[in-house]
Amino acid sequence: MTTAATLPDLEELRDRIAAAETVVPVGGRTHWDVGGPAPIGVEVRAPAGVVSYDPAELTVTAGAGTTVADLAATLEDGGQECVLDPRDPAAATVGGTLASGLSGYRRLRYGSLRDRLLEVRFVTGDGRVVKGGGPTVKNVTGYDLPRLLVGSLGTIGVIVQVTLRCQPRPRHVTWAGTSGDPFEVRRRCFRPSCIAWDGGDTRVLLEGDPDDVAAELHAGGLTPGDRGPAWPDGPHRGRISVRPGRLCALADELGGVDGLRWVAEIGVGTVHVGADGPAPLAQARQAAEAAGGWLLREQGDGIDGFGAGLPNRQLMARIKTAFDPAGKLSPGRLPV
Amino acid sequence: MADLRAALGPDRARAEPLELALYQRDAGVDRGQAAAVCFPDTGDQLAAAVRIAARHDRPFVARGSGTGLAGGATPVGDPLVIVTTGLNRILEVDADERVAWVEPGVLNLDLSRAVHHLGLHYAPDPSSQQACTIGGNVATNAGGPHCLAAGVTAAHVLAVEVVLADGSVAMLGGLEPDAPGYDLRGCFVGSEGTMGVSGRIAVRLTPNPPAVRTLLLDFSTIEAAAATVSGIIAAGIVPAALEMMDAEITRAVEDFVGAGYPRDAAAVLLVELDGLPAGVEAQVEAVRRVGHEHGARTVRVAADDAERALLWKGRKSAFGAIARIAPDYYLHDAVVPRTKLVDVLRQVYAIAAEYDLTMMNVFHAGDGNLHPLIVFDQRTPGVWERVHAAGDAILRACVDAGGVLSGEHGIGLEKRDAMPLVFTPDDLDAQARLRDAFDPSGRANPEKILPSGSRCGELQRVPAGAWI
Predict the structure, then answer these.
(1) How far apart are the first and last CA of chain B?
(2) Does A246 touch chain B (CB under 8 A)?
(3) Contacts with B273 (C-beta within 8 Å, 6 or more apart), sequence order
(4) A164 plus A183 within the same structural domain
(5) CATH 3.30.1390.20 fits B211-320, yes or no
C-alpha cells in the first residue's frame, strides 16, 4: 500500500480560480486542440502524485496532475494497470486525459474511458471543492458526476483528484496481423483488445493467458509480430465516431480522400484520421456525418472542433450554466 | 383522468382505491400515495402521459416491476404513477454490432433468453432478473453478481431515448462510440427516474464465454472466507463473480433448494471464472490454491452445466429461502473497501446482537458490496424500531470504513437523508444542479435521492422518522 501525504492544500488553487475572470485548466497540453479552441485566461494546474494505492482494492487515488506514465509506474509495482492509453503517456496527465474524454485503443475489450473513473474531486468556478462518486468499485450513491466530468473539457470544474479502477496486468500481450477481413477476425476471436484496420492491413492486440493467445491467433488466422498499427500522425488529426456496422461503407469513402491517413477500430466505431493539412479532415468529416457519425478535431486548425452542432444543446447549456453560471471555465471549448 | 383516458384508452388509466393501493410502494418499506396510475402500451402513450402530467403541473413517478428496495418508486407528492411493464417489446437485435434496442418494460432475463441462440447475453444480472425490468435497471444503475468483471448497467447502456419532464423526447448517447458534448446518457443512468422516463434503450450484448467454471469453497470461519476473497484479487484474478454467504443463509438456502451447500460451514464462497479455456483452468487452480492456503475445507468445482445451475440457484434463491425463517426481511445494501470486509462484517454481527435481531449475510464479496439481511416478524412489538436502528448503525459502520451508502439498489427515499454522511453540502448542491438542469420543474419523481436542503439557500429540515 502506497500512501503519500494527502494532496497539498488546495487553498491557493481555489483562490486563484475564484478570483480569475477566465480559468483554463492545463495538464500536459497533449490534448490542447481537442474540441473548441483553447481560451485565453488564468492557467491553473492540478496537484501531481499518487495519494493512495492498495493493490487489493484494485483502485488508485491520485492528483489529477499526475502523468499517466507516473501512475502506470506505481501500478506496475502492484502488477496492475489502469487502462487510460493516451497517445503520449509521458506528458499527458490523468486529469487532462479524463477531461478530454478520449478513450484509448483497447476500448474494444475494456470499455470506455468513462468506466475508469470512480470518484472525482473538482474545484468549481467560485472556488469550492466538490466530490462526486465514491472510492469503491461499485457505487450508486447519488448522481454520477464522474461521468459528467469525463469529456467535459474543463467546462464544469477543474479536476484536482481522482480515484480510478485498476486491473491485473495481462500475463501475455502480443500484436498480430492479417491481410484478411478484419470483421471476420472480430467474429472469430472471443475477446481481442483491439482490431485496427487501415483498409488493407489488420493489426490485432491479444492479451491473456499464453495458451489462450495462441488459440486466438489460430482462430483468427493471425500472424504474430510485435508491430502495432501505424496510428495516423500529422499536424492535423481527429477521430470519427460512427456505428461500428457502418465502418465498412465509411472506409470506402475515406479511401477516396486525397492525403488522408486513417486507422479504424473495428467493433468500436472509432476512426483515427490524420493529414498534413485541414482539407482532408474536412472531407473526412463530411463522410462521417453522411454515415450518421461525427468527427472530433484532436489537433491542428482549419476546421472547428465539433462540426455540426451538439445534440441536446439546450439541455447541455442548462448543465453548463448550472455548474458555471459566470461562464468562466474554459469558455468556447464546448459549443453550448 | 379524462385526459389520460382519452390519450391511453379507458382501461389504461385508473384511480380506484384498490389500484392505487397496489402502487403505494416498491419492494422496499416506504409507502406513499398515488393520485392516479396509468399503463402506457406504446412509446407515444408514454410521452403523452408525461405531457399530461406536465399540463396539469403534477409530479410523475415511473416504475417497472417494482422490485426496487430503496423506495425509489414510492409515490410522493400525489403523483401520476406511470407503469412501464406494458412496454415490453424487444425492438431490434443486431447480432453483428452486438446491440439490442428494447422498451423499458422488457424483463432483464427475457432479453438474455431472447439472444441466447445468437451466442450473446445481457451482462448485468441482478438477483431479481426474472422479475426486474431493463428500464428499472437503467434507473438504478443495477448491478448483480456478474458485474464484478463485466461492470454495472452504466457500462452496458449505449443510448436512452428519454421523455423529459416537460414531455419532450431526447436521445441521450447513441450507437456511435462517443456522443459530442457532455455524457448525458451517463448522467441519466442511475438517476432513479428523477431526470425523466426512458422510452427506448439500446444495450450492449456480450458474447457468451467459451469456458465457464463455477467453484464452491467452504470455510470454518468467516474471516478465512474474506481473506480468500482478498487472496484471489491479490493473485491477479478478477472472477466473473465472487459471492459470499454466511452460515445462517447457507443453511437456509440448503434447506430450501438442496444445492449441496455444506450445512455446517461458517461461510461459503461461490466463485465463477469465465473466458478462454486455458486462462480459466489456470485460474481454477489458482483459486483452489488460494482457498486451501486460507483453510478452505473443501473446494468443489461444478462438473457440468446442471451442477453449475444448481449452485447458482442456491445463491439466487437466498431471499426466497428466508421466508421460511420469518415473514419479513429488511435488506441492506452498502459497499466497503474490499480490505475492510472482515472488520465491517464483525461490526455488523455485533450490531445484530446488540439489537437482538437475526441477521444473515449474502453478498457480492468481490466488490465489497454487503447485503446484511435482517429477518423478523413485524407483529413483534417494537421490532421495527430495532430494525431501523440496527440499519442505521450498519450504514454508519460502512461509511466509517470508507464505504458508500449503496452499491446497486440506489438511494430512493430510504437512504435520502443519509446522503450527508458521505457528501458535503457543496457536493449535494452540485448534484442538485445536475438534477435540476434535466428537470427544472422538479416534477420527475420528486423528493428522491437528495435530502431537502441540498440546494444552496434551501432551508434545512430533517424529516421525522428519517435515518439520521
Answers:
(1) 38
(2) no
(3) B212, B213, B214, B215, B237, B239, B240, B280, B283, B284, B287
(4) no
(5) no
- A141/B180 Cβ within 8 A: no
Q: Does A325 touch chain B (CB under 8 A)?
A: no
**Phi/psi class of residue B3: alpha, beta or left (left: φ > 0; alpha: ψ in -120 to 50)?**
alpha
Between residues 98 and 157 of chain A, which touch chain B (CB distance below 8 Å)? 101, 103, 107, 111-112, 114-115, 124, 128-132, 134-145, 147-148, 150-152, 156
Query: Which residues from A are below 8 Å from B151, CB to CB?
Result: 111, 115
For residues A158 and A269, state if they share a domain: no
One-letter amino acid of B322: I
Instruction: Determine the topology of domain B90-207 in CATH.
Output: 3.30.465
A92 and A153, same domain (yes or no)? yes
B421 pLDDT band, cuts 50/70/90, is very high
**Three cell numbers written together for B191:** 438517476
Q: Domain with A180 in it: what CATH number?
A: 3.30.70.1710
Where do the CATH 3.30.43.10 domains begin and end in chain B? 2-83
Q: What is the pLDDT at residue B321?
A: 82
A154 with A213, same domain: the answer is no
Domain hosting residue A247, numbered range = 231-322
- A98 to chain B nearest CA, in Å? 12
Rounded mean pLDDT, A16-41: 96
A148 with B186: Cβ contact below 8 A: yes
For residue B53, give the C-alpha cell.
402530467
pLDDT grade for B325, boundaries at 50, 70 and 90: confident
Measured in angstroms, the CA of A169 and the nearest CA of chain B are apart by 8
Instruction: Give the span between the Cα atoms of A311 and B332, in whole angstroms.
Output: 39
Would you list the DSSP string of B271-340? EEEEESHHHHHHHHHHHHHHHHHTT-SEEEE--SHHHHHHHHHHHHTHHHHGGGT-SEEEE--EE--GGG
What is B174-233 written as a DSSP string? Answer: -SSS--SSS-HHHHHTTSTTSS-EEEEEEEE-EEPPSEEEEEEEEESSHHHHHHHHHHHH
Q: How many CA atoms lie within 13 A of B454 on its CB side?
A: 25
In-domain check, residue A153? yes
Q: Kindly report, residue by residue over B121-151, the tens digit of the pLDDT.
A: 999 999 889 899 999 999 999 999 999 999 9
Query: Cβ separation of A322 and B438 shorter than 8 Å?
Result: no
- The CATH number of residue A317's host domain is 3.30.70.100
Contact (Cβ atoms closer than 8 angstroms) between residue B422 and residue B173: no
ipTM for the predicted complex comes to 0.96
β-bridge pairing B36-38 and B80-83: parallel
Q: Which residues of B touch A150 (CB under 8 A)?
A: 183, 186
Chain A residue numbers touching B209 (CB-CB < 8 A): 190
Q: Are residues A11 and A75 in the same domain?
A: yes
Where do we find the cell 408514454?
B46
* CATH number (domain holding residue A142): 3.30.465.10
pLDDT range class, residue A8, cuts 50, 70, 90 = low
Is A134 in contact with B433 (Cβ distance < 8 A)? no
Q: Are B428 and B450 in contact (CB under 8 A)?
A: yes
Chain B within 8 Å of A167 (Cβ-Cβ)? Answer: yes
Which residue of chain B is at minimal alpha-carbon distance from A307? B180
Rounded to whole angstroms, the Cα distance separating B110 from B128 reads: 12
Residue A220 CA to residue A213 CA, distance in Å, equals 10
Q: Are residues A199 and A246 in the same domain?
A: no
Whether residue A93 sits in one domain with residue A53: yes
SS3 A324: coil
Q: Residue A323 and residue B433: Cβ atoms within 8 Å?
A: yes
Chain A residue closest to B235 (CA)?
A168
DSSP reduced 3-state for B377: coil
The count of domains in chain A is 3
User: What kind of architecture, by CATH, is found in domain B326-400?
Assistant: 2-Layer Sandwich (3.30)
Sequence ranges of chain B with CATH classification 3.30.70.2740: 326-400
